[in-house]
Design a protein that fits this description.
elongated, 223 residues
Length: 223
Protein backbone atom coordinates (compact mmCIF):
# COMPACT_ATOMS: atom_id res chain seq x y z
CA UNK A 1 0.00 0.00 0.00
CA UNK A 2 1.36 3.41 -0.99
CA UNK A 3 1.48 6.13 1.63
CA UNK A 4 -0.72 9.01 0.41
CA UNK A 5 0.23 11.33 3.26
CA UNK A 6 3.93 11.13 2.50
CA UNK A 7 4.06 14.20 0.27
CA UNK A 8 2.54 16.73 2.73
CA UNK A 9 4.77 15.30 5.44
CA UNK A 10 7.84 15.64 3.21
CA UNK A 11 6.88 19.21 2.28
CA UNK A 12 6.49 20.17 5.96
CA UNK A 13 9.85 18.57 6.80
CA UNK A 14 11.54 20.46 3.94
CA UNK A 15 10.08 23.77 5.16
CA UNK A 16 11.18 23.02 8.73
CA UNK A 17 14.70 22.10 7.61
CA UNK A 18 14.85 25.18 5.39
CA UNK A 19 13.91 27.44 8.30
CA UNK A 20 16.86 26.01 10.23
CA UNK A 21 19.14 26.48 7.21
CA UNK A 22 20.01 22.75 7.19
CA UNK A 23 19.02 22.28 3.56
CA UNK A 24 20.95 25.37 2.53
CA UNK A 25 24.03 24.12 4.40
CA UNK A 26 23.89 20.66 2.82
CA UNK A 27 23.25 22.03 -0.67
CA UNK A 28 26.07 24.55 -0.41
CA UNK A 29 28.45 21.83 0.86
CA UNK A 30 27.67 19.72 -2.21
CA UNK A 31 28.16 22.69 -4.51
CA UNK A 32 31.38 23.75 -2.81
CA UNK A 33 32.93 20.31 -3.26
CA UNK A 34 31.93 20.37 -6.93
CA UNK A 35 34.34 23.24 -7.53
CA UNK A 36 38.09 23.02 -7.22
CA UNK A 37 39.61 24.16 -3.96
CA UNK A 38 41.49 26.91 -5.73
CA UNK A 39 38.29 28.45 -7.04
CA UNK A 40 36.52 28.62 -3.68
CA UNK A 41 37.26 31.81 -1.83
CA UNK A 42 35.73 32.55 1.53
CA UNK A 43 35.24 36.16 2.49
CA UNK A 44 34.17 36.32 6.12
CA UNK A 45 31.94 39.20 7.07
CA UNK A 46 33.55 41.59 9.48
CA UNK A 47 31.53 44.07 11.45
CA UNK A 48 33.82 47.03 11.51
CA UNK A 49 33.01 50.14 13.50
CA UNK A 50 31.40 52.87 11.45
CA UNK A 51 31.52 56.53 12.18
CA UNK A 52 28.95 59.19 11.46
CA UNK A 53 28.87 60.12 7.81
CA UNK A 54 27.24 59.28 4.51
CA UNK A 55 29.83 56.75 3.35
CA UNK A 56 32.01 55.45 6.15
CA UNK A 57 35.31 53.76 5.43
CA UNK A 58 35.25 50.98 2.84
CA UNK A 59 32.95 48.44 4.55
CA UNK A 60 29.98 50.39 5.87
CA UNK A 61 27.59 52.88 4.31
CA UNK A 62 24.94 54.89 6.14
CA UNK A 63 22.01 56.48 4.35
CA UNK A 64 21.10 59.37 6.66
CA UNK A 65 17.58 60.77 6.82
CA UNK A 66 18.33 64.42 6.17
CA UNK A 67 15.70 66.58 4.48
CA UNK A 68 17.66 69.62 3.37
CA UNK A 69 15.89 70.11 0.02
CA UNK A 70 12.80 69.13 -1.93
CA UNK A 71 14.54 66.19 -3.58
CA UNK A 72 15.47 64.25 -0.46
CA UNK A 73 13.79 61.03 -1.58
CA UNK A 74 15.71 60.99 -4.86
CA UNK A 75 18.90 61.68 -2.93
CA UNK A 76 18.25 58.72 -0.60
CA UNK A 77 17.70 56.41 -3.58
CA UNK A 78 20.87 57.67 -5.27
CA UNK A 79 22.94 57.10 -2.13
CA UNK A 80 21.51 53.59 -1.77
CA UNK A 81 22.33 52.76 -5.40
CA UNK A 82 25.88 54.04 -4.94
CA UNK A 83 26.33 51.91 -1.81
CA UNK A 84 24.96 48.81 -3.56
CA UNK A 85 27.18 49.32 -6.60
CA UNK A 86 30.18 49.88 -4.33
CA UNK A 87 29.43 46.45 -2.78
CA UNK A 88 29.57 47.68 0.79
CA UNK A 89 29.59 44.89 3.38
CA UNK A 90 27.02 46.70 5.51
CA UNK A 91 24.42 49.27 4.50
CA UNK A 92 22.42 51.08 7.17
CA UNK A 93 19.27 52.82 5.90
CA UNK A 94 17.70 55.49 8.11
CA UNK A 95 14.76 56.63 5.90
CA UNK A 96 11.90 54.27 6.79
CA UNK A 97 10.16 54.44 3.41
CA UNK A 98 13.11 53.40 1.27
CA UNK A 99 14.31 50.98 3.95
CA UNK A 100 10.96 49.17 4.12
CA UNK A 101 10.72 49.00 0.34
CA UNK A 102 14.21 47.53 0.06
CA UNK A 103 13.51 44.99 2.82
CA UNK A 104 10.25 43.90 1.15
CA UNK A 105 11.99 43.53 -2.21
CA UNK A 106 14.64 41.28 -0.65
CA UNK A 107 12.01 39.23 1.22
CA UNK A 108 9.99 38.64 -1.96
CA UNK A 109 13.17 37.50 -3.75
CA UNK A 110 13.91 35.09 -0.90
CA UNK A 111 10.38 33.69 -1.11
CA UNK A 112 10.71 33.12 -4.86
CA UNK A 113 14.03 31.34 -4.32
CA UNK A 114 12.61 29.07 -1.60
CA UNK A 115 9.47 28.31 -3.59
CA UNK A 116 11.57 27.41 -6.64
CA UNK A 117 13.60 24.94 -4.56
CA UNK A 118 10.81 23.45 -2.43
CA UNK A 119 8.34 23.12 -5.30
CA UNK A 120 11.04 21.59 -7.50
CA UNK A 121 12.04 19.04 -4.85
CA UNK A 122 8.37 18.18 -4.29
CA UNK A 123 7.84 17.71 -8.02
CA UNK A 124 10.87 15.44 -8.36
CA UNK A 125 10.12 13.32 -5.29
CA UNK A 126 6.33 12.98 -5.62
CA UNK A 127 6.55 10.04 -8.11
CA UNK A 128 8.55 8.15 -5.47
CA UNK A 129 5.96 8.72 -2.74
CA UNK A 130 2.64 8.67 -4.54
CA UNK A 131 0.92 6.31 -6.98
CA UNK A 132 1.36 7.12 -10.65
CA UNK A 133 -2.26 8.24 -11.16
CA UNK A 134 -1.94 10.65 -8.23
CA UNK A 135 1.64 11.91 -8.61
CA UNK A 136 0.87 13.60 -11.93
CA UNK A 137 -1.55 15.95 -10.16
CA UNK A 138 1.26 16.99 -7.84
CA UNK A 139 4.51 16.91 -9.81
CA UNK A 140 3.18 18.89 -12.79
CA UNK A 141 1.74 21.88 -10.84
CA UNK A 142 4.70 21.92 -8.46
CA UNK A 143 7.12 21.70 -11.37
CA UNK A 144 5.36 24.60 -13.10
CA UNK A 145 5.55 26.66 -9.89
CA UNK A 146 9.26 25.89 -9.52
CA UNK A 147 10.06 26.91 -13.09
CA UNK A 148 7.88 30.04 -12.89
CA UNK A 149 9.53 31.18 -9.64
CA UNK A 150 13.02 30.52 -10.99
CA UNK A 151 12.20 32.38 -14.21
CA UNK A 152 10.71 35.35 -12.37
CA UNK A 153 13.68 35.47 -10.01
CA UNK A 154 16.09 35.30 -12.93
CA UNK A 155 14.38 38.15 -14.77
CA UNK A 156 13.67 40.54 -11.89
CA UNK A 157 16.08 39.68 -9.06
CA UNK A 158 19.13 37.85 -10.37
CA UNK A 159 20.89 40.94 -11.74
CA UNK A 160 19.61 43.33 -9.08
CA UNK A 161 22.41 44.30 -6.64
CA UNK A 162 19.86 44.04 -3.80
CA UNK A 163 19.83 40.25 -4.18
CA UNK A 164 23.39 40.24 -2.84
CA UNK A 165 22.11 41.52 0.51
CA UNK A 166 19.99 40.18 3.35
CA UNK A 167 18.21 42.09 6.09
CA UNK A 168 20.00 41.63 9.41
CA UNK A 169 17.77 40.84 12.40
CA UNK A 170 20.33 39.35 14.80
CA UNK A 171 20.46 41.69 17.80
CA UNK A 172 23.94 40.50 18.76
CA UNK A 173 25.35 41.55 15.40
CA UNK A 174 23.31 44.74 15.35
CA UNK A 175 24.73 45.69 18.74
CA UNK A 176 28.21 45.87 17.15
CA UNK A 177 27.04 48.64 14.81
CA UNK A 178 26.86 52.33 15.77
CA UNK A 179 23.06 52.46 15.60
CA UNK A 180 22.96 54.73 18.64
CA UNK A 181 24.38 57.55 16.51
CA UNK A 182 21.42 57.47 14.12
CA UNK A 183 18.36 59.68 14.24
CA UNK A 184 15.97 56.70 14.02
CA UNK A 185 15.53 53.82 16.43
CA UNK A 186 14.58 51.26 13.76
CA UNK A 187 16.92 51.48 10.76
CA UNK A 188 17.09 48.75 8.12
CA UNK A 189 20.49 47.04 8.13
CA UNK A 190 21.56 45.17 5.00
CA UNK A 191 24.42 42.68 5.07
CA UNK A 192 26.16 41.57 1.90
CA UNK A 193 26.23 37.78 1.41
CA UNK A 194 27.42 35.60 -1.43
CA UNK A 195 24.38 34.23 -3.29
CA UNK A 196 26.32 32.39 -6.00
CA UNK A 197 25.59 28.89 -4.72
CA UNK A 198 22.01 29.77 -3.83
CA UNK A 199 21.33 30.76 -7.43
CA UNK A 200 23.01 27.60 -8.69
CA UNK A 201 20.87 25.54 -6.31
CA UNK A 202 17.46 26.74 -7.46
CA UNK A 203 18.53 26.90 -11.12
CA UNK A 204 19.74 23.29 -11.02
CA UNK A 205 16.58 22.04 -9.30
CA UNK A 206 14.29 24.00 -11.62
CA UNK A 207 16.29 22.79 -14.61
CA UNK A 208 15.97 19.16 -13.48
CA UNK A 209 12.25 19.71 -12.99
CA UNK A 210 11.93 21.16 -16.49
CA UNK A 211 13.79 18.18 -17.99
CA UNK A 212 11.67 15.71 -16.04
CA UNK A 213 8.36 17.31 -17.06
CA UNK A 214 9.55 17.57 -20.66
CA UNK A 215 10.35 13.86 -20.59
CA UNK A 216 6.87 13.05 -19.24
CA UNK A 217 5.09 15.20 -21.83
CA UNK A 218 7.19 13.69 -24.59
CA UNK A 219 6.11 10.18 -23.65
CA UNK A 220 2.47 11.25 -23.33
CA UNK A 221 2.49 12.62 -26.87
CA UNK A 222 4.02 9.41 -28.19
CA UNK A 223 1.27 7.28 -26.70
Amino acid sequence: MRFYGGLPFLFCVLIRLWDHHILIFLAECILLFSFSRSEVQFQPLLYLPCGHGELVGTDCAIIHEIYDNGHAQEQFELELEQALEAQKSIIIIEPSHIGDETARWIIVGNCLHKMAVLAGVTSLTSPLLLPRNVSNFVCIPMGAISMACALLYGVSWQFDPCCKYQVEYDTRKLSKLPLHTLSTSSPVVLVRKDDKYRKVLHNVISGMTCIYLGYKFYHWFLQ
